[in-house]
Amino acid sequence: MKRSGGWAGFLTGAVFAAIVLWSFATSDMELSRLLSAGPRIVEFLSRMMPPDPTVVTEIVDGTAETLRIAILGTLGAVILSVPLGLAASETMAPPVIHRSVRTLLALIRAIPLLLVAMLMVGAVGLGPMPGIIAVAFHATGMLGKFYAEAIDGVTRAPIEALESAGAGRLARLRHAIWPQMAPVVARDTIFRFELNLRESLILGIVGAGGIGFYIQTYVRSFQYDKAASVTLAVILLVIAIEGMNVALRRHFS
Amino acid sequence: MTRVVDIDDLDFAHAGADLPALEGVGLGVEAGEAVVLLGPSGAGKTTLLAILDGRLHGWTGRVSVLGRPLSPDAPPPAAARPDIGFIFQEFALVERSSVLRNVLNGRLGRMSTFAALLGRHSVHDLDVAHQAMADCGIGELTHRRVDSLSGGQRQRVAIARCLAQEPRLILADEPVSNLDPARAGEILTLITRAAAKRGATTIFSSHQPELALRVASRVVGMTVGRIAFDHPVGDVSEQEIAALYRNVAQDWPIEAELRLVQ
Ligand SMILES: Nc1ncnc2c1ncn2[C@@H]1O[C@H](COP(=O)(O)OP(=O)(O)O)[C@@H](O)[C@H]1O
Ligand SMILES: [Mg+2]
Asked: Which long-range contacts (CB under 8 A, 24 or more apart) does A106-113 make?
């Protein structure tokens, strides 16, 4: 027993060592390049300094477009998530349906947003449109699941009480199910919007609109001082969104 | 005159249960009676009340309520359901809604689909709801959210919702089991008075005989799925009541053994 345990330990160590060595062999990591990169990084950063403040209009426009992508993308996700959430809920849909819809939603969640955005740019061209479609698609994977959980988390007793009183299906949905679901749905949607906004910031890097588009444009045209301003703006926006997240968590906890 | 409740040879077993919850139950209730079902936990009181409310199916025998035979395997037509009111043991209220909204929920069965969906209540609906809240002593709580109320206040909201339904038969499952004896007496009096005022018949279950006998007109004793006795309240003996509880343990396996011995 002890011996075989030792062997297992040795084998695991050997496998890890092999993996790390293999990684070094396949990339062009060289100590000399790493050392000579030091001055180049300094030079690169110095070309970003001082950030060019004349791009304020681009920053404002880009931020506004990012906001629009997040808003419309969230709206699209809500519209898709209502029917998918109903179909994915155990209480509303038969097992065959809710299991397959849940699998579908998990698959959607598994596809990275940037990949969807790149495909959409290929399909519909540059601009905010592919960004909106990509956000709506990607966010549905999470929101549809959360809506289904909100439906399934509802207490049955008051629904049965209204049924016993003769209330019809729609009346039960409106007066017993919805009041229980609404706060959960509102919370999940707002949190998803916050995530969408965060993720929309960099969508422009693949050409899907928003403030990230300017970073990509300025880096490609070697206008590093302008790229620096936009990057700073993105950092500030991320901090602002983080603040919004903290406030939301406080409000909903 | 036809009986409000007419049960003949009713048998029922819960899905997955080894033993029947009701066996050969027969019961007739006339209009205006206040019947208490007395018996220990597991006697079948909840099961019997749920069958009368049209919520449990798969029984055999004959059951009619308010002159209408119940189907053993389907709920009653929606139009018949408002006439039977149910006060649930755990209240079954919509916690995040207001007291008034919960009481008005009792009116939904008497409205058109569209009006019920939009919650567009008539002046008459509001009058009935306010009268029900006044009778239950919660007129001051109209706009409070139910999740901010105490257990006793919630119980009153549940009763008001049932009264707002204007039922001709009121079924109440252990309506006072969560309350202290003083409150319990008040609530039982409240239910039977409000029912009498509206000309409704009442059947409620209880495992607190002293309180129940004060407000009921008739006592039906149940043990392990059978009716042990059925008398006007004046004719019940203490021995009969004690016999319901004697030798009956609170847990299921011993009850099951007792039934096998019988
Ligand atoms: N959902 C259920 N599934 C299986 N057995 C049940 C269920 N509900 C009640 N029973 C059983 O049926 C019998 C009667 O229960 P119940 O009607 O709740 O009695 P009571 O209300 O008098 O306490 C008990 O033996 C109980 O264990
Ligand atoms: Mg019970």
From this structure: A106/A141, A106/A145, A107/A141, A108/A137, A108/A138, A108/A140, A108/A141, A108/A144, A109/A138, A109/A141, A109/A142, A109/A145, A110/A141, A111/A138, A111/A141, A113/A138, A113/A199, A113/A203
pLDDT of amino acid B252: 46
Domain chopping of chain A, boundaries = 56-252
pLDDT in the model for residue B108 = 95
What residues pack around ion ligand 2 (CB closer than 5 A)? B 46
Strand order in the sheet with B60-65: B22-29, B5-12, B60-65, B68-69
Nearest protein CA to atom 25 of ligand 1, as residue: B42
Q: Residue A194's pLDDT is what?
A: 86
pLDDT at A28: 67
CA distance A163 to chain B (A): 8
Whether residues A171 and B95 touch (CB distance < 8 A) is answered with: no
**Fold category of B3-260 in CATH:** Rossmann fold (3.40.50)
Residue closest to A143 by CA, chosen among A176, A172, A104, A105? A105
Six token digits for residue B37 = 């079902």
* Mean confidence (pLDDT) of chain B: 90
Query: Whole-number mean pLDDT of chain A?
Result: 86
Residue with CA closest to ligand 1 atom 6: B14
Q: Is A183 on the interface with B (CB under 8 A)?
A: yes
Residue ranges lining ligand 1, Cβ < 6 Å: B 14, 16-17, 21, 39, 41-47, 252
Give the phi and the psi of residue A232 in degrees, each rounded to 5: -60, -45
Q: What is the pLDDT of residue A27?
A: 65
- As its CATH architecture, domain A56-252 has Orthogonal Bundle (1.10)
Domain segments of chain B: what residues?
3-260
- As a dihedral over the C-alpha atoms of residue B64, residue B69, residue B74, residue B79, rounded to 10 degrees, the angle is -100
Inter-chain residue contact A161 with B88, CB threshold 8 Å:
yes
B140 vs A247, residue with greater confidence: B140
Quickly state the pLDDT bin for B144 (edges 50, 70, 90). very high
What are the pLDDT digits (tens) for B12-66?
999 988 889 999 999 999 999 999 999 998 999 999 999 999 999 999 999 999 9
* Residue A51 to residue A234: CA distance in whole angstroms: 13
Nearest to B117 among A158, A165, A171 (CB): A171
pTM of the model: 0.77
Reply yes or no on whether the pLDDT at B257 is more than 60. no
